[in-house]
Amino acid sequence: MKGFKWIDELHARIMRVNRWGNSLGIRFPSEFVDNAQLKEKSLVEIISDGDRLIITKVKEREPRKSIQALSYPKQTLIKQNFH
């Protein structure tokens, strides 16, 4: 598939969703944090696709926008050409 990078080794783990205040949260295992080079205050993009959540680190070299500006409606995802 174009636009996707296949990896030799996939890391997966089942995690429990917990309540943090009025929100829900997931703790990332340290191996995932290290592999994605995440640190405290790192920005991530979260895409909801039915019952899947796709979490991607926002690259540091991308221009910083407000967190609100990083959100976009579902229609935008559907209209994009991934070929």
Q: How would you characterize this protein structure?
A:
The chain has helices at residues 30-36, 74-79, and strands at 18-20, 23-25, 44-49, 52-57. The model has no long low-confidence stretch (mean pLDDT 76). The protein has 83 residues and is α+β, with helices and mostly antiparallel strands. The protein has a single domain (18-79), classed as Ribbon (Pemi-like Protein 1, Chain: D), CATH 2.10.260.10. It is globular, with a radius of gyration of 15 Å.
Short description:
With 83 residues, this protein is an alpha+beta fold.
Instruction: State the end-to-end distance.
Output: 9 Å
What percent of the residues sit in helical stretches (DSSP H or I)? 10-25%
- Helix count from the secondary structure assignment: 2
- Taking pLDDT < 50 over at least 5 consecutive residues as the criterion, the unreliable ranges are none
Biggest sheet strand line-up:
1-2
Shape: globular
Most strands sheet: 2 strands, antiparallel
Beta content: 15-25%
Instruction: Based on the coordinates given, report the CATH architecture.
Output: Ribbon
**Rg over C-alpha atoms, rounded to the nearest angstrom:** 15 Å
Record field, number of beta strands: 4
Helices and strands, in order, run as: EEHEEH
Number of domains: 1
Average pLDDT taken over every residue: 76
CATH topology title? Pemi-like Protein 1, Chain: D
What's the CATH C level?
Mainly Beta
Structural class: alpha+beta
